[in-house]
Amino acid sequence: MKYILLLLFIFQFIQTPILADPAPGPLLSVDAAAQAIIEEAAAKHAKEFTVPTPAPRQIVNTPTGSTPKPDTLPQQTNNFSLINELCLKISGKLASVSTQSCQDQKMSPTGAISVEGHPIAIKEYPPSPKRSPQARVLLMGGIHGDEFSSIGIVFNWMQTLNQHHSGLFHWHVAPLVNPDGLFRTKSQRTNAHGVDLNRNFPTTNWLSDSRDYWINRTKSDPRRFPGPAPLSEPESHWVEDEINQFKPHAIISVHAPYGILDYDGERPDPPQHLGHLNLSPMGTYPGSLGRYAGVEKRIPIITIELSYAGIMPSENEIASMWMDLIRWLTNNIFDPDIYPNRSLSQPIYALPQPKAPKKP
Length: 360
Description:
alpha/beta; seven-stranded mixed β-sheet; two-stranded antiparallel sheet; 37% helix; disordered N terminus
């Protein structure tokens, strides 16, 4: 009898599916797998995410020793709290930026927030009240959250501007465009949605070109996922808004770790070097800021690729790069409305709309 029971048990075991090892489903090709990721991301965004409408821009830099008006105190107190919290988190990730040195910059919230609710902050260095600025310049770091040196060096240059800003240029400086990427336990290139912000700008034919590039050139590398749609992310959306509102005549974007200098734009001639970094054009990619701003909007854009993501350049190199940058800007970048005979390029801030076909 016990042998019969044993045989029945073995037979039952053979017939019972093993739940931990289900039968494999159909294998997906790389293209199909990538399409599935895109569709899943698009569905997630449609369900959970809409680009928040930025609050009215309030860049308030109260002079030292002055007292804000009573009706501005609550808003400024809230702004100070936001910036102080941001600085605590930045200093917790970067040895090159202390909490105090970050707070000393007196940055202001732009009204834009990241996916996870961190403010995107900037510091404005206005032109001299006695004259019109030669040009407007936008300086950004930390588009990729794991490129630590790109954030630290912008804070260093802000300190230089604090001491030596002459008013020749009107600066907007955003040291950390992708706070969520930096603040992850293990900092990451992408934002909290897993989107590479530098592939999310609305370049021509973005839908087809960015998908083709991501699948066929990067083999669906998740670090370079362009997102489900152009400007699907609040961080890239802010950059585009900042470009259209501030209307810079030049953009400086700091990255790492390729150790070169890149340039996009028709004219003027690019700098041949900044410090030890030599010009070595990398080309542009679908959805990249270089293609969007430099090629399509014709705004001269310098991409500084520092040599190491986790190691800051020496103080001498930081100073040398800055001096070379200021020298190039001074000799080449002019507001065409103020210096029509000296300006070599005319940025486009609204791409021309296609003309309607003529009626037969």
